[in-house]
Input
Amino acid sequence: MEKDYFLLEDGKKRVESKFSENGWLTIYESNSENIDDQSTVFCSLITTKILNETKEKYSWPFLMGSEGKPSVYGDNSYKVNAEEGIEPFIFYRSFSLPEKYVTYFDISEEFVLYFNLYEKGKDKKNRIFYFIDELGHLDEVLVIEPKSIKVKLRYLKEYITLKEMHFVVCFEYMRLSKEIPSEWNIKNIDETTKTSNHTYNHLIRQVSEKKQSWIIGKVFIHPNKEKKSHFDFGDSKNEEFIIGFDDEGEEILEDCSKTDGNHFKITYFKKEVLNKYYNEPTIYDVDGFSVGCKYFRLKIDNNVKDYVPVFLTNLRVLPHKEQLHWKQYNIPPQNNMNISGTYYKTMIEGNWAEHPETADLFFKSKYKEFNKKWEKKFGWRLYKPLSEKDKYLFTSLHKITTNNVKAFCEQTHTVVKLTIERLNEKELAKNIDPSVKGSIAKFEKFLELNSMVVPDLFEFLRNLQSLRSGLIAHSFSNSNKECKRALKYFGITDENYVDVSEEIFIKSVYTFNTLEKYFKLNK
Output
């Protein structure tokens, strides 16, 4: 054992730090496996009325397991808390069951209810309490582990500020050593240290054959000077967005919350702003006119190929964190920028446009429409429904915005999954020679039996399938001859993934249109 360790210098450093680290406060800790090296941290709340009195003494307000809540006295009088001005924050629970002894800690129900904390864990000794913000994000507030409990300090500070109470972290460190080197020059002491933030006693004495070094005391966490809570909505913070240029050519920024004359002012964003939402299809959904989730719904014009127009004041529906996401993709307007005809007809005139204008949205709209028409005529769907676990594929499908091979591969895979891989082989195979294998071959033979021969259509489908089959870790196989043929068919280079992605959507729509026309599905 080193001298500083025996003198509990590590414990004193934690006292100086007020048991706080990286925004977290330790409110319980136990290390009692070694009888010669033990430490305990506990906590409680006290009122301002008894603060000065409590600071004078280094003893704890109460001991773990004797929290005194509730208390019933001999005359059957009942008190919520045994000691006036002292309130427990965590509770040591113990149960002597016939087959075993069970212990764990509970947290102040008032604290949990105040923040409406969501609890998750595998058992009572391993739990995490989360605060759910306005976007549904989970923020860890309190972590319970077998030997430790920590609380995020800013939540605790808000709580004690509203309650007008002080938080007390109680601590005890004790070390014993049989042999103390004479050069350490250790003398017996019984010293009490007091500051505005802590009070503790350091005792060094001889206990039987061992030297004991022991500190016991309290650290005080005081409430904030200003009362603020997460319930204080007040004037919600809003960002400014670009709406044009002034006479000097400088960008004009306007607050999206200001409504005077701003109802039809448009601000524009890079198409990449939507990638966040497409990439989390189980949370968000994106269509031609909006993007949203269970926490917000923003009206947008997603019918323009290269950018996203939004009416400025619509952005105020977004939580501030979400506005910051959009702000980083905000771009100044150019002469040729405007809202789409589809958006104008639908959202301004109040008349539904027949179809979206961008290739990806048009594909998704046409896909659903075509499948319904086919089923009406034949009694079965050409494209089988997606399973529950795969439904996100349709939601997340979109035209890529940059020449990113990973994004191209993912979207190509989805188109193939929705079309070629969902072909209803069982129905297509009826009245077809069993020797015909593969969904595309069966589809082609089905059309031939219906006197429809379209080699260009099947050249596209086979090359699309080969492209999909040749994907290896978001790249293309150089050893796959069919994949090489498909790369040549689509004319794929490192610079044209965006264009090819759009071509795949357009040719897929051509497939629907060709079949609709031949089988007269519109009648």
Notes: The chain has a mean pLDDT of 90. Residues 75 and 82 are 14 Å apart (CA to CA).
